[in-house]
Amino acid sequence: MALLLLFSYYNLLCVPSFATASSTNLASALLKWKFSLDKQSQSALSSWVGTNPCQNNWTGIGCSNGSERVVTSIIVQHVNLTGTLDDLDTWSLRDLETFDLSFNLLYGSIPSSIGNMSNLKYLALATNNFSGEIPFEIGMLTSLTVLYLNTNTLTGHIPDSTGNLTNLTSLNLYENRLNGRIPNSIGC
Ligand SMILES: *[C@@H]1O[C@H](CO)[C@@H](O)[C@H](O)[C@H]1NC(C)=O
Ligand SMILES: *[C@@H]1O[C@H](CO)[C@@H](O)[C@H](O)[C@H]1NC(C)=O
Ligand SMILES: *[C@@H]1O[C@H](CO)[C@@H](O)[C@H](O)[C@H]1NC(C)=O
Ligand SMILES: *[C@@H]1O[C@H](CO)[C@@H](O)[C@H](O)[C@H]1NC(C)=O
Ligand SMILES: *[C@@H]1O[C@H](CO)[C@@H](O)[C@H](O)[C@H]1NC(C)=O
Ligand SMILES: *[C@@H]1O[C@H](CO)[C@@H](O)[C@H](O)[C@H]1NC(C)=O
Ligand SMILES: *[C@@H]1O[C@H](CO)[C@@H](O)[C@H](O)[C@H]1NC(C)=O
User: Domains in the chain, please, with CATH?
Assistant: First the structure.
């Protein structure tokens, strides 16, 4: 019988590294996603206007310092964002290092196209209402050090591909309906 995975939290010590990111279509990709969300969510993101998230101080957007400021992080928590990630153009977000939409009301599946965001070090979609299986493509995010998908309604097995996340230091899948076990190869 499959082991019911109720709690799994790993915290090891590793030092994250930094890399540069660039963003040309990022603003329009984010606006497209914003307008796929409900009205209340759009008003929570009312500062998201224009074409330059860094100069225009978009809520939740973090940028690198230096002459050419580029978006490195998106952290939007606790604002009841309601909608899906279906319209998220992950290819335009491929240089992001931090993506955190925890503590919202997002639903639907975690798209397999998340595999495009291969520079992510920190991915948190915790405490939403995501369902379906964790996509195999999550294993393409080999820079990840932190992965929090806890407190959703995810089902199925933890994909074997997560074994490729060799830089992962912190993993939380608590409070889902997952079966199976964590691949042995996870860790640093
Ligand atoms: C954005 O924030 C910076 C620093 O807080 C400030 O100097 C700048 O005027 C702001 N820009 C806009 C368009 O609000
Ligand atoms: C950019 O500089 C500000 C102010 O000095 C600092 O708070 C912020 O952490 C820096 N961001 C990055 C990505 O280094
Ligand atoms: C989110 O929704 C809850 C429940 O309706 C409400 O209590 C809370 O104030 C909302 N938060 C925001 C930031 O709108
Ligand atoms: C990357 O994004 C493109 C366009 O959004 C999509 O067609 C493709 O399947 C994605 N690739 C991966 C590996 O997810
Ligand atoms: C979460 O999704 C499930 C179906 O997947 C639904 O039954 C439930 O009402 C949703 N909960 C919230 C808080 O939206
Ligand atoms: C993970 O690594 C295995 C080999 O260990 C490989 O077969 C598989 O395609 C990889 N998966 C991903 C998502 O990169
Ligand atoms: C994993 O971490 C090591 C040490 O910090 C770093 O050199 C390497 O580039 C990282 N690998 C990826 C795929 O980010």
Answer: 17-155 (3.80.10.10)
